[in-house]
Structures are given as C-alpha cells and as structure tokens.
Design goal:
By secondary structure, the protein is mainly alpha-helical. The protein has 24 helices and five strands. The strands form two sheets. A three-stranded mixed sheet has the order 2-4-3. It has a two-stranded antiparallel ribbon with strand order 1-5. Helix 19 packs across helix 22. The protein starts with 9 loop residues before the first helix and ends with a helix. This is DUF885 domain-containing protein.
C-alpha cells in the first residue's frame, strides 16, 4: 500500500510515511525487519531531527487532501487517518518545543535506541555480519550528531536533568568497559572471516562512546548542575499527549492514581495475611524474597520464562483468543547488561523471521523470585505485549504498516499489557497468594507511577488521607522514598525507575490510565451485547484494529 498518485487515501499516505521514515531512521527499519537498514544509523543532529519533522509536516498536508477523497470515510481509512494526524501532531509539538535538544535518559535516548538496534540486526550469515560492521562504523557519526544536538540545547539553555545525566554517564562507562566494551563483546559471535573488520569497527564504536562519555562528564554535566529534574505542567502536558494520545485532565488522573492506591493496598493486605499472618504487604514480599518459590540461574530463568509463555499460549489459544501460528511464537531472552532495570519486549519483524522477544535484565542477580516474574511475563509476553503487537503485525495488510508499527501509542500498548495481567487474574492463572500478591504489587507499582510521576513533575500536594507526608508537595526525593516504601522491588530497581520517570515524563502514567480505558471499553461492549457478549471475539477484534490513542480507544472498543 504506497502513495503512488495524487489520489492516495489515508492508509496509503500513512504507509508512504513509513517508507520515507525508514530512509531517515534505519533503526525503525531494523525493528520492522527491513534488511537494507542494517548498514546504517540515523542522523541524530538538529538537521536530522528537522528532516523527520519536515516529513511529518509534508505528510499532514497530504493527509488533508486524502481525507477529502471518496472512500476516505470508511472505518479502515478513518481510523488510520485519525491515528496518523494525532501522532504526527503530537510528535511535531515535541519537536517544535526543542525537546530533542535535551533528550538525556537512562532508557529513552538516541544512544539507547542505537545500542538496542544491534541485538535485533540480522546476524546469521557473513553478509549480515558485514552489514553489522558497516553499521558499527556509522556509530561515531551518529553519536557526534547526538552530541551536536545536546550542545545546541546547552547554547539555548534547554537542559537535560542532572539525575538522568549522571545515570547516563554511568551507563556509558559500563558500555565502554575497562578492557573490552559492549560492542567488542557483541561482535565476538561474528565469523572468523570478518574478525579483523568486526573488531576494528567495534573498537571505533567504543572509542566514540568513550568520547561522548567524556564530553558528557566534563562539559554537559557541569552545565546542567542545579537545573531541575522535573519539567513543570506545560512540558508535562506536551509529553502526556505524545505518550498517551489524549489531552488528560492531569489533576483527575492524579486523584485516580490515589484511588487505585487505596484499593490495591487493601487487597494486598488480605493476600499478605495468607502468606505471613500479622505482616503487611511489603513485609510479606520481603519474606517471599527469602523463602518463596524462586529460580536459580540465569539460563534457568530464561528457560522457565519461555515455558511460562508457551503454557499461556496453549491455555489461551482457542478459548480466550484465536491465534495464528506465527503469533504463537515468542522467545525469552536475557537483556544485554548496562541498561535500565525493567524488563521489556521487542516485536517481531514484519515477516516474522525474527519473532517477538521478551528481555529480562538480571542486574547481576542469579536468583529470581517467582512472585516477581509471573505477572510481569503475562505483561511483557502472553497475553500482554506479544499478543497485541504480534497480532498487529499479523493483520498489517488489512490495516496499514503505520498502524501496526511506528504509529504505536504507548498508553494503548501498556494499557493492554496491564489489562492482560488483570485478565490472567480473572481467569484464575494466579491461584495462590504468593503469585497473586506479586500481581498486586505490580499493579500497585503502576498506581504509584501515576501518583509520583504527575505529583513530582507538577509539584502537587500530597493528599490529607495519604499515609505518607500528607500536605507536603512532591519532590523527586519524596517520590523515590514513597515508591520504595510501596514496592517489593530492590533499591536499584526503584532508583532506575525514578530516573526513568524524570527523563520520560508522562510515559509511566499510561499503564494505569490505558488499563482504565481498556476496561471501560470492554464493559461498554459487554453492556451493549448483554448475554451475547463473546470475550474471545471481542479480544481478537480489539487486537486487530491497530494502534489508537486514548482519545479514540474507548470509543472504538465500545463498538466492537
């Protein structure tokens, strides 16, 4: 589906945008499985950012025409056109505010995207590895472009946060290594016939990382010292539209986070009593860390997680979902060291030659409590991210490449994944107090995200009925203390999470607010159909309509 004439409909305009974006952003091409992308990297400089913005503006102009044409009012064209317009408008708002000139993060920066692309690049043949060597040789220019953007941000007094900056410098130091860097380790799996070329390219990439690290440490960090880590209401609202696909009432969302906090705390107290009578939820979780079911060994936990997903697919397919054979395939992987602490998912290539994959950061651990894994892998894998994103890819020819890939709205995807955790609880897949307390702890983490993310960036007041510092105003320090007090996760995870929230404002609130949208859409559809409501049919229809912002999600789900 491509834009080959002046009479292109919205889906053709959207797919032409994807083709053009891949030319500008080969990392997106790698995620989609475009082989030609394997040799190149994006231009992260101000000029490169402007080129992507120019493409967005030109696409919106073409969409203006497309939406007036006969056939543009069909459900398929209308839905795609609305998504394309909303996404490009949100992205341009972020660009026009020069946010790309101060994008420093422990998880969401151009350097993270660059590094994450390499494990997804095809590496089966000598030709694949030759492409990887060429991509490695492109690393210095890509990092120089990113540095140029940050330097322009300093010149314009657009500063990244000191805390994400410090964490990013630590990550760069780990990736550089002492004797061998991350890139050298990565190419060690390459063929002997290309050993000299690969090693030289990897050393060049590592040297560029070290150069960026030194500049960040010696120039950037001193320049941003004393700058706020929080963004304020105006910037937060802009990022909220970007990550959630809606203009939220932030004060209502903050109040909703607190209501969920109180509900979940009561449920957790009930489950904790079953595990350790007289103990509170987090004492019970600490008890499970020592005495609960656990997996010993890194490869052993990878195998265990694979089995968990395989069993979920077998149990759900045909009963609550109807899965194509290629959607049934998902791989469990261990995440490369040196990243953030949270598990994550990467989708399949467009032809499914690379399957969807879940990634577990071990953070140096070799012992893994089960209570902290089961619900998380229902979120990251099955029936969470994998079923949604793989199903989008499976039906992309009925939607558009855009709806199935680069048009993804974070709150839609994260909301579905959190809904998936709740669904597995509803279906009885968390049969004991240990696993159910782990699920509730994960839910509580998402409720706390809404509270602290909005609270600290907007410096809101802590309510009078809070058990924690009532009447005070949120700061990052209070947020980390609160989050740590209400999580069964270790201190390094909590610290990594708070740094993530500071450098990705409004992304973390999309889990709970997206779940709310999915639940409301299901309830509306159930009411409309009455006894004839078919959950399996609704799930498959919902997963086959592609990405939607929260503005449109409830409305579309309610009609199914």
């Amino acid at each position: 589906m491509s834009d080959t004439s002046g009479s292109a409909l919205p889906r053709q305009v959207a797919d032409a945008y994807v083709d053009a974006l891949i030319e500008l952003d080969p990392i997106t091409g790698t995620y989609l499985g475009v082989a030609e992308s394997s040799r190149r990297l994006p231009d992260f400089s101000p000029a490169g950012q402007q080129a992507v913005a120019d493409l967005g503006r030109a696409t919106l102009a073409r969409l203006d025409v497309a939406e007036t044409l006969p056939g543009a009012d069909s459900d398929a064209e209308r839905r795609c056109g609305r998504l394309l317009r909303e996404r490009l408008t949100a992205e341009l708002a972020v660009h026009d505010a020069d946010e790309g000139l101060r994008l420093v993060s422990n998880i969401h920066s151009p350097v993270h995207h660059l590094r994450d692309a390499f494990p997804l690049t095809p590496a089966e043949t000598d030709e694949d590895w030759s492409a990887i060597a060429e991509r490695l040789r492109a690393v210095p220019a890509a990092l120089a472009g990113y540095r140029e953007s940050l330097a322009l941000g300093l010149e314009r007094e657009l500063l990244g946060g000191p805390r994400p900056t410090a964490t990013f410098i630590e990550q760069l130091t780990e990736w550089v290594g002492e004797e061998r860097g991350w890139f050298e380790d990565f190419v060690s799996a390459g063929p002997d016939s290309l050993r000299t070329e690969l090693d030289a390219a990897a050393r060049s990439a590592t040297a560029a990382l070290a150069e960026l690290r030194d500049w960040m440490r010696e120039v950037y960090a001193p320049a941003v010292e004393g700058a706020p880590d929080t963004v304020g209401r105006e910037r937060y609202a802009r990022w909220s539209r970007y990550f959630n696909g809606t203009d939220l009432d932030l004060d209502e969302a903050y109040a909703y986070g607190w209501s969920e906090y109180h509900r979940l705390r009561a449920e957790m107290t009930t489950e904790a009593e079953k595990i350790l009578p007289g103990a509170g939820p987090w004492e019970a979780l600490a008890h499970l860390d020592e005495h609960g079911e656990h997996i010993e060994g890194v490869d052993e936990v990878r195998v265990w997680l694979q089995k968990l997903m395989d069993e979920a697919i077998d149990a759900l397919d045909g009963t609550h979902f109807e899965l194509a054979e290629r959607v049934r395939r998902v791989e469990s992987r261990i995440a490369p060291p040196g990243g953030a602490a949270a598990p994550y998912y990467t989708g399949p290539s467009e032809d499914f030659s690379r399957p969807g994959r879940t990634w577990l950061p071990t953070m140096g651990e070799t012992r893994f409590p089960v209570y902290d894994l089961v619900s998380t892998w229902y979120h990251e894998g099955v029936p969470g991210h994998h079923l949604q994103i793989a199903q989008w890819t499976h039906v992309a020819d009925q939607l558009s490449r855009y709806q199935a890939s680069v048009g993804q709205v974070s709150a839609n995807a994260e909301g579905w994944a959190l809904y998936a955790e709740r669904l597995m609880d509803e279906l009885g897949f968390l049969p004991d107090a240990e696993r159910r307390l782990g699920y509730l702890d994960a839910q509580m983490m998402r409720a706390c995200r809404v509270i602290v993310d909005i609270g600290m960036h907007l410096e809101l007041e802590i309510p009078a009925d809070s058990p924690f510092h009532p009447g005070e105003r949120w700061t990052p320090e209070l947020a980390q203390e609160f989050f740590g007090n209400h999580s069964g996760r270790p201190a390094d995870f909590v610290e990594s999470e708070l740094t993530r929230y500071l450098s990705m404002p409004a992304q973390a609130i999309g889990y709970k607010l997206g779940e709310r949208a999915w639940l409301l859409g299901r309830e509306n559809a159930r009411r409309a159909h009455g006894d004839a409501f078919d959950a399996k049919a609704w799930h498959m229809a919902a997963l086959s309509q592609g990405s939607l912002g929260l503005d449109d999600l409830v409305d579309e789900l309610s009609k199914l």
